[in-house]
Every structure is written in C-alpha cells, then in structure tokens.
Amino acid sequence: MAQRCLLLPGPGRTLVGALVPLLHRNASRKTGTCVLGKIRSDVTLSGNNTVLASVFAAYRCFASQPPKGFEKYFPGGKNSKKAEDSKGTSGELKDAKQNDKQQSGGGNSNSGGGNRKSGKGSGKKEDSTWWSRLQKGEIPWDDKEFRFYFMASAGFWAGITYYFFFRNSGREITWKDFVNNYLSKDVVDRLEVVNKRFVRVIFTPGKTPVNGQYVWFNIGSVDTFERNLETVQQELGIEAENRIPVVYAAESDGSFMLSMLPTVLIIGFLLYTLRRGPAGGRPGRGMGGLFSVGETTAKVLKDEIDVKFKDVAGCEEAKLEIMEFVNFLKNPKQYQDLGAKIPKGAILTGPPGTGKTLLAKATAGEANVPFITVNGSEFLEMFVGVGPARVRDLFVLARKNAPCILFIDEIDAVGRKRGRGNFGGQSEQENTLNQLLVEMDGFNTTTNVVVLAGTNRPDILDPALMRPGRFDRQIFIGPPDIKGRASIFKVHLRPLKLDSSIDKEGLARKLAALSPGFSGADIANVCNEAALIAARHLSDAINQNHFEQAIERVIGGLEKKTQVLQPEEKKTVAYHEAGHAVAGWFLEHADPLLKVSIIPRGKGLGYAQYLPKEQYLYTKEQLLDRMCMTLGGRVSEQIFFGRITTGAQDDLKKVTQSAYAQGRRMLG
C-alpha cells in the first residue's frame, strides 16, 4: 500500500503535499493532530513525515471509524473503542436505573407530565438535525447521513477538479507537424486511434519528449487517415515491414460523463425522495416523502403555549363559558361519575380580530395539554382524496396526544353547506366535510379530546356540522364594550415603556372611550402604532399624545401633509367640516364632536372625530339627527358658496345606507 501511495502521479502528489500542512499546521514534528467538529485524531508520524502517514492522518480526519481490519494501525483503535462503549453502556444503565427509580417514586405526577416531557424531547431532536447544526457553524461529523452526503459531494467535486485541472490532456498537433517532427525522425512506435476521433502518438522507448506529454491530432475519418498515412510512408521510403502499426481503442472521456450528468441528477433526486419516504415519515403517520401528501399539516404545540386566561380580556362571558372545557380536561372523572358526557367541541364565532384563536390557545395553556392547530384551507389540495386523508390523519394525531385540544381555524373553508353542485373542487370539499362529520361523530367520549373551531361566517356552515354531538356549544365573541376595551388596553400596555407621569388605569379608560367599536386586534394595533410614533419622534417613553395620534391614524388613515390644496379648496373643506360641527352642536341626539381638522387623511380631504354613545337600541329621532348632522357639510356648502362639490359624496353614501336600513328594520 505504501508503494501505491508513493507511485501517485504528479498532480496527486501535489494535492497530498498541499493537504499535509493544513492537517498538521498546529502539530509537533512527531505527533499530528487534526480536529474536525467532534472528531480528534492523533497520528504518530515518522521522522521523514512520509506520504503514507499523511494519508492516514487525512483519513482519520474525514472518517469517524478506521477501515475494517486496520484498527491496529491507528492509535487508540479497538481498545479505546471498546472502553468507550463499555463506559457508554454503564452510563446508560445508571441513567436507566435512575429513571426507573424516579418513575416508581413519582407515580401519577410523572404520568401527568408525560406529554410535556415528550414535547421537550421532540423539540431537542428537531434542533439537533445535521442541517440545523451546520447552520449554527458546527460540523456534525457524528451524523451518518451528513457523512454520506459529505463524502459523496467530496468525491464528485474531486472528480470534477481532477478532470478539469489535474488530468494530463496531452498536446494537440497538426498532421503536418506529426509528419515533419515525429514520423520523419523515426521516433514513433505506434499510433492509437481513440474512438475514431483522434490519434494518440506513442513514442519509441528512450525517444520520449523532454516534457513527458503525449501528442495527438484530430482526424476526419478513419479511411482518409489510413490513406494519408500510407501515402506519407511511401514518400518517406519506409519499407512495408517497418511501417508504423495502427491500433484502435475505445475510451470513455469526460464529455460522456457530462452528458449523463442531468440524467444522474434526476435519478439521484428520485432515489433520495423515495429513500426519505418510509424512513422520513413519522411513525404511524403514513409513508412520508412522495407519499406524505395525505399527512396532516397540523402543528402540535406543547410547551410552547405561554398564553393564559389572564392574557385574554374583553370577552368575559365567553371566557367563563370556555373555562368549563379546562375543567373537563383536568377533572373528567368529576363529570363521568355523575353520568355526564364530556362536550365534544365548541365553535367560536364573531367578527375578525375579537380573539377567537387567542381564547382557544389560552384554553390549552390553562389546561396544560397539547394544542393542535390547523387551518381549514389546508385540507383542500389539487389532488383528489387528499382532504379526507388529512382529516383522518389529523384525528389519529389527536387521539395519540389525548388529552388535547384540536383547533380548526377558519372552518368555513371546509364546512360550507352541501348541495350546491357536485363538480371539481366542490365535490372534493364535500368529501372532506363528510369525513370530518364521520370523525367527529365517531369520537369516543373517553378520549378527552376537545375540538374547537373558529369562523366569522357561521351562516354558511353545514347544519350537520353545527348540531349537538359534534359542536355542542356555539360561543359568540363580539366586539368589546367600553369596559372590555379598557381591560384589553391594560393587557397591551404592560410591555410598553410609558411616561412616568401616566396612570395606566386612567389612560386605559380614556383610550377605551376614544376607540368605540374597536376589536382586540385594533387595540393591539393602536398600542403598536403609539410605540412606533414615539420611536419616530426619538422619545424616551410613550406619552398620551402618542396614543391619540395612533387612534387618529387607525380611524382616519395616514396624514397627507404633503398634499397641497388650493386656497379655494381649503376654504370649501373648512366650511364643509364646520357645517358638521355646527349641526351636531344644535341637534339633541347627535354624537358629541371631539376633533375636526382639514388636514387630509386617507381618502378624505377633511377629518372629524366623534364620541358615540355605547348603546344597542336607537330611536327614529336619534337616527334622523345623525342623518342631519351628516348632511350638515353639504348644506353649509350650498348656503355659503351656492354650489355643492364632490367632497360630500361620502356623506350621501352614509345617509343612503342609513335610510335603507331604517326602511328594512322599522317598516318591516
């Protein structure tokens, strides 16, 4: 083996010579040390630092184990390996004994925290993949899959490098050079016709050129080459028995490999995908790889849930209603002893941004159980049968993680009413809904799995989905009132850095009065906008003025200070906004005016902010006063200018909508 290493060609010896200093840069003269990731190898070198020792050192750096049968040539080979194995085995036995003691002593407490432990373990496993470790700057050489890919890619690039940089490609000559410089001087031993494309000149022993390169020349066709060679030899007077022999050879060159490269890559990708199939799939969750299209895309959250009921505000009634589900999951025996059945699920309805998803997540956080979340649109794909397969896989996952909470957000995407046609995607949606109905109705009440769903369009859901036995309860979460908005503001004001002179309780009540009709998402947006405005102004803390600007930004839109109006237009807008203010001042049931401005915001050229009352019933007089105040700007333009501009079109639209609503609700 040493003789083979010493007989390497020139480029190979150059590559080994360049590799040795890198491997032993920090090594002493007699001991070489190479560190790669977690693999550390010490190789004893001879005094002359032979190529064989260098190759062994390189191999030890790029392999976790020595070749089979050569362990005795590597320091710390078999014996150290056995010692490490024995140490690891004894350590594992000790850990196993300690775990057995803890389990036997822990009893029910260990079973109660089982899901939480498995959640942490699964999270660590995901973070310890070779790809994530490689992104962190660590070289995961102890991973078998990484070593396979590394060695395969290293071999591929080594072949490419050798072919383009280290391969002896010879020197090309012409037919005339061959005849004048080589054939006429009697230094040619034979000619090799390679692949019927070019001729390689083989020199007589002892008459090889100084540079050692072989020479070659292209030929058009074999017949033409043979005729020309015979003619030249006759002209040179070479006798028939001394003429140059011609040998035909077939060799595989790099062009063939390059032409096959796309095919090899495609086949490799397919094999990789199929290899990742059964092995890459989750246990008991289908084939994986190409066969994973039917697996659910649901996310299982265990220890990541840090939302509690104290973080949910503005929907106290809905919170009390859903707190019972927490008690069901914590103390199911309390209800089963009385003959009661655990509710199978509840559907949360209400406008967008009112906290349906947040309330479901807080339920899982309080119950300290896994929270499985999935979107309704994720069931429907372009392949037929994927939706029902994902529904089945979703409920299998829920049963394995019981007790747990399964939350289907935007269930209207898959739970629409049936019977509106049976073509294309509509048929697939109905099949998915049918599978969902079967899975929910077939649930065993002792599995302790609660199904929650959220939607803001309950009117389009299928009646079979809404019946008791599937979704036993329908919880409506509406926009919060002034008290609810104040409590939501308190929640969102906690992480903000407020001015020391601000009272949080008073600020929350004032902001709640300034934001009628706001949902929880709107209030969170207001607090975030206030922080952004304070940062934009380079303030050390957030003050009340920042919150007022944020509310105006959310209600009216962005200020357009750069939009220049003509003086006549400014006067028209000022009289228009003043008409709203004066009309509201003299009307009995009009909302009090808070602020009026002619700075353009959003689509409008002016802006007026009111403080409407918190009420749910309106009389005819109140509605008429509101309509009069809305038309005050239009009347002001008619009185003072004798004309009406297009700036009042939004007012006309609001009045028309109010009039039609009164006709429908009051006149029947």
TrEMBL record:
<dbReference type="GO" id="GO:0004222">
    <property type="term" value="F:metalloendopeptidase activity"/>
</dbReference>
<dbReference type="InterPro" id="IPR005936">
    <property type="entry name" value="FtsH"/>
</dbReference>
<dbReference type="Pfam" id="PF17862">
    <property type="entry name" value="AAA_lid_3"/>
</dbReference>
<dbReference type="GO" id="GO:0008270">
    <property type="term" value="F:zinc ion binding"/>
</dbReference>
<keyword id="KW-0482">Metalloprotease</keyword>
<dbReference type="Pfam" id="PF00004">
    <property type="entry name" value="AAA"/>
</dbReference>
<dbReference type="GO" id="GO:0005524">
    <property type="term" value="F:ATP binding"/>
</dbReference>
<keyword id="KW-0645">Protease</keyword>
<keyword id="KW-0496">Mitochondrion</keyword>
<dbReference type="InterPro" id="IPR011546">
    <property type="entry name" value="Pept_M41_FtsH_extracell"/>
</dbReference>
<dbReference type="InterPro" id="IPR037219">
    <property type="entry name" value="Peptidase_M41-like"/>
</dbReference>
<dbReference type="InterPro" id="IPR003960">
    <property type="entry name" value="ATPase_AAA_CS"/>
</dbReference>
<feature type="compositionally biased region" description="Gly residues">
    <location>
        <begin position="104"/>
        <end position="116"/>
    </location>
</feature>
<feature type="transmembrane region" description="Helical">
    <location>
        <begin position="146"/>
        <end position="165"/>
    </location>
</feature>
<dbReference type="GO" id="GO:0005745">
    <property type="term" value="C:m-AAA complex"/>
</dbReference>
<keyword id="KW-0472">Membrane</keyword>
<keyword id="KW-0067">ATP-binding</keyword>
<keyword id="KW-0812">Transmembrane</keyword>
<dbReference type="InterPro" id="IPR027417">
    <property type="entry name" value="P-loop_NTPase"/>
</dbReference>
<dbReference type="Pfam" id="PF01434">
    <property type="entry name" value="Peptidase_M41"/>
</dbReference>
<dbReference type="InterPro" id="IPR000642">
    <property type="entry name" value="Peptidase_M41"/>
</dbReference>
<keyword id="KW-0862">Zinc</keyword>
<feature type="region of interest" description="Disordered">
    <location>
        <begin position="73"/>
        <end position="129"/>
    </location>
</feature>
<protein>
    <recommendedName>
        <fullName>AAA+ ATPase domain-containing protein</fullName>
    </recommendedName>
</protein>
<feature type="compositionally biased region" description="Basic and acidic residues">
    <location>
        <begin position="81"/>
        <end position="100"/>
    </location>
</feature>
<comment type="similarity">
    <text>Belongs to the AAA ATPase family.</text>
</comment>
<keyword id="KW-0378">Hydrolase</keyword>
<dbReference type="InterPro" id="IPR003959">
    <property type="entry name" value="ATPase_AAA_core"/>
</dbReference>
<feature type="domain" description="AAA+ ATPase">
    <location>
        <begin position="342"/>
        <end position="481"/>
    </location>
</feature>
<dbReference type="GO" id="GO:0034982">
    <property type="term" value="P:mitochondrial protein processing"/>
</dbReference>
<dbReference type="InterPro" id="IPR003593">
    <property type="entry name" value="AAA+_ATPase"/>
</dbReference>
<dbReference type="InterPro" id="IPR041569">
    <property type="entry name" value="AAA_lid_3"/>
</dbReference>
<dbReference type="Pfam" id="PF06480">
    <property type="entry name" value="FtsH_ext"/>
</dbReference>
<dbReference type="GO" id="GO:0004176">
    <property type="term" value="F:ATP-dependent peptidase activity"/>
</dbReference>
<dbReference type="InterPro" id="IPR050928">
    <property type="entry name" value="ATP-dep_Zn_Metalloprotease"/>
</dbReference>
<keyword id="KW-0547">Nucleotide-binding</keyword>
<comment type="similarity">
    <text>In the N-terminal section; belongs to the AAA ATPase family.</text>
</comment>
<keyword id="KW-1133">Transmembrane helix</keyword>
<keyword id="KW-0479">Metal-binding</keyword>
<dbReference type="GO" id="GO:0016887">
    <property type="term" value="F:ATP hydrolysis activity"/>
</dbReference>
<feature type="transmembrane region" description="Helical">
    <location>
        <begin position="256"/>
        <end position="274"/>
    </location>
</feature>
